[in-house]
Amino acid sequence: MKATTVLIASDEAIPRLGLKHILDSEPSFTVVGESETEVLINDARKLQPDVVVLHVASTRQPLPNLIESLHEALPRCGIVVLGRETHHTTVGLFFAGGALGYVLLQGTPKDLFSAVRAASRGRRFLDPKLSKEFTDLVLRQATNGPKLLSQREHQVMLMLAQGHSVKEIASRLDLSRKSVETYQARVREKLNLHTRADIVRYALETGILQFRNSEEAS
Question: 192-209 pLDDT, tens per residue?
Answer without folding.
Answer: 788 888 888 877 766 566
